[in-house]
Amino acid sequence: MTLDRVAAGSGVSVPGEATEFIGAQHILARYAQDPEIGRQILDLVRWTEQQAKSMGTDIRGGQPTGGNIKGGLTTIEEKSPGAIAKAGTAPVRAVYEHGGTSSLKGLVIMDSPGRETEILTGLAAAGCNVIAFTAGRRGRLPGSWKGA
User: Is the pLDDT of residue 145 over 80?
Assistant: First the structure.
């Protein structure tokens, strides 16, 4: 995987959008380089889901989206492993706050909301100079999505 090559070299790979891990956070935690980082991953996802619930939103009940369903997914638990797989197989070296910077090389997780503008802003604030963002079916950007 390309992100594995970045993480193995002198780069930093920074997947974000903690909402994408819900339902499969235990899988991502297995990639942690140590138990403390694994706990931070689980805590991040738990906190993210609790924040949404405190605002009256059930993330699990609102996922997957219509486009995901048309693509064949039926639950967030089916969707999340795909999001995690995009990060590759390198060990997770740290969990950072939204926009936090990393002095580490390799794979780090950034806490970020589930909205594209905020994710991209946080990655830029973290010092990412190449940002690859996959969205929707057929590779269209979220703002140009016309439905299928």
Answer: no
